[in-house]
Design brief:
Elements (H helix, E strand, L loop, with lengths): L1 E10 L4 E8 L3 E6 L3 E12 L7 H4 E6 L4 E6 L5 E13 L2 E8 L3 E14 L4 E14 L4 E4 L2 E8 L4 E4 L2 E8 L4 E4 L2 E8 L4 E15 L4 E5 L5 E7 L4 E5 L5 E7 L4 E3 L6 E5 L2 E7 L5 E7 L4 E5 L5 E2 L2 H13 L8 H15 L2 E2 L2 H20 L7 H24 L5 H20 L5 H12 L2
Parallel strand pairs: 2-6, 2-8, 3-7, 3-9, 8-9, 9-10, 10-11, 10-12, 11-13, 12-14, 13-15, 14-16, 15-17, 16-17, 17-18, 17-19, 18-20, 19-25, 20-26, 21-25, 22-26
Antiparallel strand pairs: 1-4, 4-7, 5-6, 21-24, 23-24, 27-28
Helix pairs in contact: 2-3, 6-7
Length: 446
C-alpha cells in the first residue's frame, strides 16, 4: 500500500475566493487567523497501472494572486485505488467558497462570508458559520450547527438538520425530513414526502408546507408572531405553551381535530371545510392551520404526551355492556370498567417525536458502523453458518438442562437462589417454619 502526505502553503489576501471542485473525495474546510491558506493531504492507495502516480495529477491548485482567487480541482485517477484519504483546507476566516462535490461530502466550519455548496451524492455539514449560506444536495443530508446566517437549503433525497441557528431560513426537500432544534429568526420550509419536526422553536415568523409528511412544531413563549402551517395528507401537531397569547384559525377538510388546550373554542362548517377558532389573551401570536386529509392536533405542554380519549373508551365499554345477556349481573362488570376508565385517564404516551429522534440517532450510528466494515463474503454461506451456529447453541442449552450437567459454581448459585426463595416464602407467610426447615433439609440431601 503506497502513501502520500503533503502540506501546501499558499500566500493569500483577505476576502479570499475559493473555487473547489471534487470528484470522489471528501473535503474539510476550516477558517483560521492566519493570512495564508494551507492544504493538507494524506492518502493511502494501491497502484493499479504501471505508471507512477503523482499528487499533482490528483489535486490541481491554481492561485490567481491578483484576483485573490484560489482554484482547487480534485479528481480520482484511473490507475489508483484509494483506500484512505483526508483532505483539509485551512483558509482565512473571511472567505467565500463556491464548491461542487460529486460522490463526496464537504464540511465547513468557522467562516464568515457568502458560501455556495453543491453535492451530488455527499453530505454538507456546516458549523459556526456567519454570513450567507446557499446549499443544495441531490442525495446527501445537509446539517448545520451554531450558524448565524441567512440560509437557503435544498435537498432531493436527503434530510435537513439544524441546531442553534439564527437567521432567515428557507428550506426545501423532496423526500427528506426537516429537523430543527433551538433555532430562531424566520422560517420557510417545504417538503413533499418528508416529515417536519421543530422543537424548542424561537422563530417569529413561520411558513411550513408539506404534501405527505407530518408536521410537528413545539412553540416557545413569545409576544407576537405569524405562523402558517399547511398539509395535504399528513398530521399537523402543534404544542402550545400555557403562557402563549394566541389567535388560532384551523381548517380541515376530511381530517379530525384533537384539542387539549384550555378554554372555549368555536367550531363551524362552511362548504367542505371544518373550521375551528381559538383565542387567548391579546392574540398577538397568529396561528393559521390548514389540512386536507390529515388530523390537526392542538396540544398544551402536558399534551406532548398523548392522553387517552376517555369518552371514546366510555362508548366502547357501554357497547360491551349492552351486549351482555340480561341474565348476567352487570353491576360488578360495570364497576370494574369504571375503575379501568379512571386508570386510563392517567395514562400518558411518550412523545413519539422524541422516540423517533432516538431511533434516527441509533440508526445513523448503526449505518456508520456498517459503512466502516468492508465485507467480501457470500451471504448465502453466511446465513448457513449463522443457522448452524444458532442450532449448536440451542442444542447445547437443551443438552445441558436435560442432563443436569452443571458446573460446581452453577450448582452453588442455583442452591443459593433456592434458599433465598424458601426464606422469602417464610417471610411472606406462605409457608411456616416447619415447612421451611423440611425444604432446606431436602435441598441438602440432594
Amino acid at each position: 500500500m503506497a502513501e502520500i502526505k503533503r502540506t501546501t502553503k499558499i500566500e493569500v489576501k483577505p476576502n479570499l475566493k475559493v473555487n473547489l471542485t471534487s470528484e470522489n473525495f471528501s473535503v474539510r474546510v476550516s477558517g483560521w487567523e492566519q493570512d495564508f491558506a494551507e492544504l493538507n493531504v494524506e492518502m493511502e492507495y494501491k497502484q493499479i497501472g504501471e505508471q507512477e502516480i503523482k499528487l499533482e495529477e490528483i489535486i490541481v491548485i491554481d492561485h490567481q494572486e491578483e484576483e485573490n482567487i484560489l482554484n482547487i480541482t480534485i479528481s480520482d485517477p484511473k490507475d489508483m485505488r484509494i483506500s484512505k484519504a483526508r483532505i483539509d483546507l485551512n483558509i482565512p476566516h473571511v472567505s467565500t467558497i463556491q464548491a461542487k462535490m460529486e460522490n463526496g461530502s464537504i464540511k465547513v466550519n468557522n467562516l464568515s462570508g457568502e458560501q455556495k455548496l453543491e453535492t451530488e451524492n455527499g453530505s454538507i455539514k456546516l458549523d459556526t458559520m456567519n454570513g450567507k449560506l446557499d446549499c443544495s444536495s441531490e442525495n446527501g443530508a445537509v446539517m448545520l450547527d451554531s450558524c448565524q446566517a441567512d440560509i437557503t437549503l435544498g435537498t432531493e433525497n436527503g434530510s435537513v438538520k439544524a441546531a442553534d441557528c439564527d437567521g432567515k431560513m428557507i428550506l426545501k426537500t423532496e423526500n427528506g425530513a426537516v429537523k430543527l432544534k433551538r433555532c430562531t429568526g424566520t422560517l420557510e420550509a417545504e417538503t413533499e414526502n418528508g416529515m417536519v419536526r421543530i422543537i424548542e422553536a424561537g422563530f417569529s415568523k413561520v411558513v411550513i408546507h408539506s404534501d405527505n409528511g407530518s408536521i410537528f412544531y413545539d412553540f416557545q413563549v413569545l409576544e407576537k408572531g405569524q405562523f402558517d402551517f399547511q398539509n395535504d395528507n399528513g398530521r399537523i401537531q402543534l404544542v402550545i405553551p400555557d403562557d402563549l397569547e394566541y389567535e388560532i384559525k384551523a381548517r380541515n377538510k376530511m381530517g379530525k381535530f384533537n384539542v387539549s388546550l384550555p378554554g372555549d373554542y368555536e367550531r363551524k362548517q362552511t362548504d367542505d371545510k371544518h373550521i375551528l377558532e381559538l383565542s387567548k389573551g391579546s392574540g398577538n401570536v397568529k396561528i393559521n392551520v390548514q389540512n386536507e386529509f390529515g388530523s390537526i392536533n392542538l396540544l398544551n405542554q402536558a399534551g406532548k404526551s398523548f392522553d387517552f380519549d376517555s369518552e371514546k373508551f366510555t362508548r366502547i365499554f357501554d357497547t360491551i355492556i349492552d351486549k351482555i345477556p340480561d341474565d348476567i349481573d352487570t353491576d360488578k362488570i360495570r364497576a370494574k370498567l369504571e375503575r379501568a376508565k379512571e386508570k386510563m385517564k392517567h395514562i400518558r404516551m411518550p412523545d413519539p417525536h422524541k422516540i423517533q429522534m432516538h431511533i434516527d440517532r441509533a440508526m445513523n450510528d448503526v449505518n456508520k458502523e456498517i459503512k466502516n466494515i468492508k465485507l467480501d463474503i457470500n451471504f448465502d454461506d453466511l446465513k448457513e453458518k449463522a443457522d448452524e451456529a444458532v442450532s449448536n447453541v440451542m442444542n447445547a442449552v437443551k443438552n445441558k438442562f436435560s442432563s443436569n450437567e452443571m458446573t460446581e459454581d452453577e450448582t452453588q448459585e442455583s442452591n443459593r437462589r433456592s434458599r433465598l426463595k424458601i426464606l422469602q416464602l417464610l417471610q411472606d407467610g406462605k409457608i411456616n417454619a416447619e415447612e421451611a426447615e423440611k425444604l432446606l433439609k431436602a435441598m441438602e440431601e440432594k
